[in-house]
Amino acid sequence: MNYDQARWTEGEEVYEPHLAEKRSTEVAVADSPLPDDLTRDELDLPDLSEPELARHYTRLSQMSYGVESGPIPLGSCTMKYNPTFTEDVAALPGAGTHPDRSEGTVQGSLELRYRLQEYLAAIGGMESVTLQPPAGAAGEFTGILVAKAYHEHHDEERSEIIVPESAHGTNFASAALAGYDVVELPSAEDGRVDVEALRAAVSEDTAALMLTNPNTLGLFERDIEEIAEVVHEAGGLLYYDGANLNALLGRARPGDMGFDVMHYNVHKTFATPHGGGGPGAGPVGVSEALAPFLPTPQVRATDSGYETFEPERTIGKVHGFAGNWLVLVKTYAYIARLGDAGLADASAKAVLNANYLASRIDYEIPFSPFHHEFVASAGRDAADVARRMLDYGVHPPTTKWPEAVDEALMTEPTEAETRDSLDHLARAFDRAAADSDADLEAAPERTAARRIDQASAARNPRLSWQALDE
Ligand SMILES: *Cc1c(COP(=O)(O)O)cnc(C)c1O
């Protein structure tokens, strides 16, 4: 398979889409019932016909790369393919109900919410689940607020949350945003939690320990039961960062390991759209003791159907209405289609694919045995190796994190890739490794956008054609 990304340049001699020529579009405002200060006489819009517009967006898509172009093996991000049948389900005429409709007229939507709460609770080994948080980080924040409300209800003043150094950056941020002091826990030599260091870190100030298992190196925390005991004995709670459940699905449950509260990223584990700012969803599951503090409303089953209710000591709302509702419809469709056996099969293949890919590449992988992802060391600038991989027609892995591996390439192929696709990915890894420093420094050469100035792109993003025009 060869790769050359399309490079369209709009607005030059041969093709003139008049993007820069704005037309002042007269708007009929005479009969407007709106007050004058809320209306305007013209709109600053490009003057384009429908075919021009369709072609513009098609060209943009050809200059881009998505999971429908090839694999995106971003470790931790779990960029699995989103099956299109879930879009069909979310597009059913009955799916998009108005959130203010009376409950008696939306029993189907309520049933779906109820069943999804139950599915996720069963998958995580939790008692109750809220579907409201709109992203993983929002789920973490919600989960920590629930934990905080629990401690406050028991008249406990606890000021610290312990987070291992290998944790996702959002864990530190969520704990801090909820008003806690963050205590960073160093890892042991083998990349796992150092249980002795944990013993030394816990105290009557410990509100919770936030943990990912398998951790960001793909390693399973074998001592999880002992870890849970240490935290619980100190009166703290165990938070599970379940953004990426791909190694556990249908096989092991955070609730059974001793976790009290967790979030799920449906846009990582349950094949709903991902990236570009969402929308995603980050449901939160809790143990029985924490259930009264969940956001409101929750859905329950009654003898005559389904209804919403307010948990007894709710922390309130973290999103309007039911959260990102149509994303949740897709989540439900995906889980229902796969079923228990399908979910367990997905995790088996995710782990097999990561291990197969690792066995095919010529890179040092310092930590093992890993599960759904592995972290290879690039041996030189990981970002340059990643840019070179773009030239070989694949999306590169996550770079330079976690820091326990020098010049990290954190790689997660997901269960969706075939053996051919994994072999292609492996060739891209190895060809980039064999290329000269000069090749790497010139990369990428075959993409629509060449080497970009990342700092300016982040600081001065031009996200609209007006901004580009200026
Ligand atoms: C992606 C991720 C998050 C955050 O999820 P968002 O939906 O991006 O907010 C948290 N923890 C881990 C381990 C993740 O991979």
UniProtKB/TrEMBL annotation:
NCBIfam families, A to Z: PRK04366.1
Pfam families linked: Aminotran_5 (PF00266), GcvP2_C (PF21478)
Aminotransferase class V domain span: 145-275
Protein name in the entry: glycine dehydrogenase (aminomethyl-transferring)
GO biological process: glycine decarboxylation via glycine cleavage system
Residue ranges of coiled coil: none
E.C. designation(s): 1.4.4.2
Native organism: Halococcus hamelinensis 100A6
Keyword Kinase: no
PANTHER family: GLYCINE DEHYDROGENASE (DECARBOXYLATING), MITOCHONDRIAL, GLYCINE DEHYDROGENASE, DECARBOXYLATING
Residue ranges, annotated region (Disordered): 23-44, 433-470
Name of the top EC class for this enzyme: oxidoreductase
Composition bias type Basic and acidic residues, residue spans: 443-453
